[in-house]
Predict the 3D structure of the following.
Amino acid sequence: QVQLVESGGGLVQAGGSLRLSCVASRSIFRLNVMGWYRQAPGKQRELVADIRSGGITNYGDSVKGRFTIYRDNVKVYLQMNSLKPEDTGVYYCNGQLGPNDYWGQGTQVTVSS
């Protein structure tokens, strides 16, 4: 089992920045992939960004050039710049270990226009 806990969400004006953090109950380097997903009201959950064990990153088209995913020994971060109202949603941390998928409880991000 892997527990994931997010933090860093909040309310920000358009054009502002937020940084999300996710801490895992075991070393993140043992996880094959860690990522951030988001879900807006009435929409499906979508990939925001992920980072693989070799450090390779992948971004959703809507956040490329604005968001950056990175990690240290204990956490995975999502730096979000130039935020837009359409970035509003619940952001979930995801970790993949072998065939298993783990999710955090989510953190709300609200971007006002």
